[in-house]
Design a protein that fits this description.
By secondary structure, this protein is mostly helical. It has one domain. Helix content is 86%, strand content 0%. It is built from three helices and no strands. Helix 1 packs antiparallel against helix 2. The longest helix is centred in the C-terminal third of the chain and has 26 residues. The protein starts with a helix and ends with a helix.
Length: 83
Amino acid sequence: MKKYLKEIEIAGMLLIGIGLIIAHTAGYDYGAWPCGCGILLLLVSYLYKAFHWKEYEAENRQNIWIIVICILIIFIQFLIIKT
């Protein structure tokens, strides 16, 4: 599993990017599936690194900040859409 973490992360990010492109061109219903699969792949990678904290401590701290920023961006987008 350890040697495939980078490939899993890249595949997850590619699927999220593909899902975003599909969502903007064909509709959100079609783009949600690739985005969801990409998020699940990233979750698998993040969970593996979380359970092996000492080995991936620097990356885990960076991932935590990335997740917090993404949550803030989503929250702000929901506020903008509601108004």
